[in-house]
Amino acid sequence: MTPAGMTVGRLLQKTREEKKISLESIARETRIKLDFLQAIEEDSFQVMPGEAYARGFIRSYSKFLHLNAEEMVDLFNHQVESQKTQPTDPPNGSHSFNKSLDQVKNHLFDFLTTLAGGTAAYPLGKTILRSKD
Q1: Which tops the pLDDT comparison, 55 or 88?
Q2: Which domains are delineated in the chain?
Q3: Would you say 89 and 95 are in contact if contact means Cβ atoms under 8 Å apart?
Q4: Can you tell me the distance from the alpha carbon of 82 to that of 131, in angstroms, rounded to the nearest whole number?
Q5: Of 11, 72, 79, 99, which is most buried, counting CB atoms within 10 Å of its CB?
Q6: pLDDT reported for residue 5
Q7: Cα first-last separation, the chain
Q8: Within 10 Å of residue 15's Cβ, how many Cβ atoms?
């Protein structure tokens, strides 16, 4: 059973360090990219190409360290589910403000690009391009 409060990444990293194994050697043996192994240890699963890949990488990494792979995948599943149910926006609304600001910046960039003679990054409406048949 896993210690309370331990994430998948922390548990794998702790075990690897206790066994004095480098991430590079694990990458070589498991053929998992070093970047993905680092992301797993940092619990940065958004870097992965998908949850199915993350599960497979965790399973391989766990087997390499002689840990119970299914228990580690279950811990990952629980960790992902708890992150999905937690609110992602901070209570002060700064995230939504930053998102809105990014959208304004993108539209301003598109507008300025169009003025400078570039191609707009967004499609022009059909009403503008309608033929006069």
Answers
A1: 55
A2: 8-85 (1.10.260.40)
A3: yes
A4: 53
A5: 72
A6: 73
A7: 73
A8: 17
Cα–Cα distance for residue pair 133/131, rounded to 1 Å: 6
| DSSP annotation string for 69-96 | HHHHHHHHHHHHHHHHHS--S-TTSHHH
What is d(CA 128, CA 109) in angstroms, rounded to the nearest whole number?
A: 21
Whole-angstrom Cα distance, residue 64 to residue 37?
A: 12
Token digits of residue 28: 């070589």
User: What pLDDT digit, counting tens, does each position of 78-129 carry?
Assistant: 998 887 776 555 555 555 566 677 777 776 767 666 666 665 554 544 444 4
Neighbours of 81 (CB within 10 A): 10
Structure tokens at 115: 């003025």
Q: Which residues have CB under 8 Å from 19's CB, separation 6+?
A: 65
| Residue 114, H or E segment | helix 94-115
Q: Give dist(CA 66, CA 104) in Å, integer.
A: 51
